[in-house]
């Protein structure tokens, strides 16, 4: 019986949605065991929370420095091996850098850092550490997104000619219109959230998804952002035109003020021969569109899907799989990498995805600030 990987978590205590998501996902394939961490800035709160979720207090620490100090004293077989960072954005970089420098594997929430410069430093740090690093662009873990990626790679769509991604939410709508609230939450504070709210939070999901499924990279972009109020320093809505090459174009449309929307993430890729469409709120349906043919609907778990899609499918056809399963597939891929097992290169987003995301955010903000002009992404 193989030993479970010892997982520590930073943040995600209390009723945090992201905390529950990571804990459930890490347990799915019996590869990880959550053994400790720093769930809350207050040690007493962390210890109380650890009792609530059934974790021994032995590995609950007052802060990251204390965790590293104590864990590195232990024999390798007793140490926390990988740490998931679920804190506000401004803590991602210093925490990830310190963990890598001390030999830990890292799973980091997005955006990876608050600046492109930090992302490049983190990439250099990882190259020296030679450990495993994953960024949780969760939606890449859905079986039908993996099927979409494989179908495009196999040429079923032909040459790609149009990409359209929409990510609409409405959660910030009541906050942005209340002056006190919009000036008090961390997501709209550049010191804690970085230079972008909407593009940093969900726009990077869209950018990563575009490049993940299509196999193409954005070369240039033009952005138009909306801040709604003059005293609000971070975007809450925006549209970005994309150029992958001279004749392959696309668009990313994101909003956190789309009133009534929940988590409307839609991905549409069109080629010369066919198109594919996927909607996150109905993730078990992948639609294939062809001229002169009836629309085809592909669903997970069937033998007509690729081996990569089937590897990420946990239930028989007709049984819905969702975001917990998608995140679980990312953790599964990380476990394979840590154990030195063979894995598909698309099983989890890595440092380069995080770096691309930060480059995207800064280029989008730069394009908007310069009067909505085309700017080039770094290669």
UniProtKB/TrEMBL annotation:
Domain GFO/IDH/MocA-like oxidoreductase stretches: 145-276
GO molecular function, one term: nucleotide binding
Residues annotated as domain Gfo/Idh/MocA-like oxidoreductase N-terminal: 19-137
TM spans (from-to): none
One Pfam entry name: GFO_IDH_MocA_C3
Protein name, entry field: Predicted dehydrogenase
């Amino acid at each position: 019986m193989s030993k479970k990987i010892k997982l520590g978590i930073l943040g995600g205590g209390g009723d945090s949605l992201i905390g529950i998501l990571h804990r459930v996902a890490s347990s799915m394939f019996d590869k990880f065991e959550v053994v400790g961490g720093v769930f809350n800035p207050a040690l007493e709160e962390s210890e109380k929370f650890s009792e609530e979720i059934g974790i021994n207090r032995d590995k609950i620490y007052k802060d990251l420095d204390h965790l590293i100090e104590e864990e590195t004293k232990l024999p390798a077989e007793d140490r926390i091996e990988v740490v998931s960072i679920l804190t506000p954005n401004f803590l991602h970089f210093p925490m990830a850098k310190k963990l890598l420098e001390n030999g830990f594997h890292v799973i980091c929430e997005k955006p990876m850092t608050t600046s492109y410069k930090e992302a490049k430093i983190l990439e250099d740090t990882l190259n020296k550490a030679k450990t495993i690093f994953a960024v949780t662009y969760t939606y890449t873990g859905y079986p039908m997104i993996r099927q979409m990626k494989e179908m495009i790679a196999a040429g079923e769509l032909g040459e790609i000619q149009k990409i359209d991604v929409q990510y609409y939410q409405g959660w910030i709508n009541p906050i942005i219109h209340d002056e006190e609230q919009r000036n008090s939450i961390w997501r709209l504070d550049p010191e804690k959230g970085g230079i972008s709210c909407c593009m940093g939070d969900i726009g990077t999901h869209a950018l990563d998804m575009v490049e993940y499924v299509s196999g193409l990279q954005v070369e240039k972009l033009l952005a138009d952002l909306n801040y709604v109020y003059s005293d609000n320093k971070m975007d809450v809505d925006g549209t970005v035109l994309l150029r992958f090459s001279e004749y392959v174009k696309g668009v990313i449309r994101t909003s956190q003020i789309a009133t009534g929307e929940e988590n409307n993430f839609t991905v549409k890729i069109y080629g010369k021969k066919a198109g594919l469409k996927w909607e996150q709120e109905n993730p078990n349906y992948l639609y294939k569109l062809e001229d002169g043919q009836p629309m085809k609907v592909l669903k997970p778990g069937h033998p007509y899907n690729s081996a990569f899609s089937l590897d990420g499918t946990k239930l028989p056809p007709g049984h819905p799989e969702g975001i917990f399963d998608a995140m679980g597939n990312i953790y599964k891929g990380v476990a394979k990498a840590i154990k030195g097992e063979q894995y598909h290169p698309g099983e989890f987003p890595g440092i380069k995805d995080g770096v691309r995301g930060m480059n995207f955010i800064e280029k989008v903000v730069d394009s908007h600030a310069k009067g909505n002009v085309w700017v080039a992404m770094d290669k």
